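Chain X:
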Amino acid sequence: MQGIRVERFFQKAYKKERYLDMKLLTIHGLAQYATEQEIDKVINHFLKLLIKRAETTPYNYYEYEFLRSAFGFPLLIKKYGYSCFEKVYQQVQKQYQDMPEAFKGHLIFDEDGKQVSLRTPMKIKQMIDRFYESRNLR
């Protein structure tokens, strides 16, 4: 009975979360209690949101870095081996590769989910500003 309540908690949390990185955290919890078939349903929904994200927020590098980090989908793939996790991870990688270089490599997350900055905030701002200026978007 306890497992069912915990599973419902993670399902409700998944539905309430707006950001993909936060949804991923609920998937980590849900994966401990749900079957692969139940996870597959959640992941199919997640995949639709991810694909839409490339259209609505194409340069959201923070989310992409979290999803592809050692704490993100690679950890779920390693721990559970579900093909649905691999499918989403491949889509994350594709969308990340499609982003301009100005939005890549600013940070990573370790296996504990802790952010590690690879560039200073000033350097990140300069790179992003140059990107927008080169396209006359600012």
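Chain Y:
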Amino acid sequence: MPRGPVAAAAVVLAAAVLAAPAAQAAPERSGAGAAVTGAAVTDAAGRSYTATTITGNVRTTLRFTFKGGQELSRTDLDRIGARLGLGKGSLRATPGRTVRTGAAERPSATLRCDKNPSWSNANGTLAARFNCHHSTINWGFKISARVQSVITGNVHESGVSWWRNGRRMPKNAGHVVGGSYHFHGTLKPVRHADHVQFQDYMTFRVSIGGRPGTGSLTWAADVTAKK
């Protein structure tokens, strides 16, 4: 993970793959108290597996569920994890129906005017820039090639939800596009010293080893804009 003036960002990238197709559920919540708009993937009866990684201020949670079938062996889980860029032993069986992710308990990152930091992990890359001249934050997100390789249809993006100084702001428009799309948008107005939390939620069909399912990807960031 890149480190620099904004490497302390509380960025959350959460991916859930191979979840059984099902109806929509209640929104998830970030650790900063901002709710992810758009429905989470719910599970039919099946076995669920998760992997959570925290590197500095970055937390990544991967979850998938198979409907029926035998429980995956340690070898199976490590094979899937390797395909998705996860460390050996990261994926573990877990109970429950939903995944809740949150930012680590860290200070908000400083997003300096006209700087272009980015954060990458196995799930994708998030970039953000405070354009103080126009009072905006421009953001972009690209799903990683490894996650793209298991997506079998369009990605349904809910559109970024965001909060400025704790107040909810109008969300960005969502998209229904291919997995290789470079998601992007603008948050405005954002001015010097504003505390901004923003996050997105995506769902898509997947297939791994011939097993079809539904996946989801959630990312979130917590920054303070500075000139």
